[in-house]
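Dear colleague,

Thank you for sharing your sequence with our group. We've completed the structure prediction you requested, and as agreed, I am returning the results in plain text so they can be pasted directly into your records. Please verify that the sequence below matches your submission; if there's any discrepancy, let me know and we will rerun it promptly.
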Amino acid sequence: MALDPEERRLQTVCLLILTSLAVALALYWLRSAMIPFVLALFFSFALAPFIDLQVRYLRIPNGLAITVTLLLGFFILSSLAGLITASVGQLTASAADYQRQIERLPGLVIGFLATYDIHPPDAFNPANLIQPQTVGGMLFSTTNAVLGVLSQGTLVMIFLFFFLAGRTVRTDPSPGVWGQIESRIKRYVVTKVATSGATGALVWLILTVLGVDLALVFGLFAFLLNFIPSIGSIIATLLPLPVVLFSPDLSTNAAFLALLLPAIVQFSIGNVIEPKLMGTSLDLHPIAILLALMVWGALWGIVGMLLATPITAVMKILVERLQLTAPIGALLAGRIQPVSRRPPS
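Please find the predicted structure tokens below.
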């Protein structure tokens, strides 16, 4: 017996939910192989314009252009790895000093409350608020996470080589769905890398001029966290707060500027410059982006959060091509369509 349109739609939704759960489980189970694969795919989008530039305007053969681009990619990854290693080393060297400063926080809080004649209970022990290994444990976890990402660098380079070697230089956009995906993701990746690099460089420069410790660390985190929409810029702005508050060498004006100026940089680039450069190329609603951050963060951790937006944009393009799943694409863009119902017979 043939199903009516509403029953077919319900059946499709149920199958889509079950398929999504199965795919999510597979992505989580295969994350050790899928994360380098997806990272290499997006790196290829970022480096593709450099290959096209060499072939079209410098008349360099395609093979040589790919080799030069791979060397550039290796240099970028090596530089990023060096920055991360230097940042972790700087954090490790300063861990003991900042641990002592953090342990002073409860006493400062009690002294501040005493100025307003507020006295906590006698059983209140400030030392219990701070665990002895707070900073050490944080640094240990950070180092393990960094080493885990760096250990996949070789696999990323292998995937990147095959992606770049298999592409052809075109004078016109690729046709079909793949061309739409390629143009949108390439524009997103290139714009995001440029704006994130500018954000990280400006934050590092501001904090260095003001004499804030760990300026390189905060500049690097501003670069990385800028790839996480909305949430990343807020976290990057608040990260220097403990160092600024506990640094005895900073004046009040310098501490205020160390918090205000990076916030202005984050707001200006993230809300003024970046939207003008990117336009509406991804066509995703902010709520859809936040949900994607939570889902991909649960599946792939911090790397999933970095890749959540472009992956969701690709999914939106794919579901828009099918009539039964087109409403999902409209929902991701924030265009809620009313459900049509049959008139009662």
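Summary note from our side: The radius of gyration is 25 Å.

Kind regards,
the structure core
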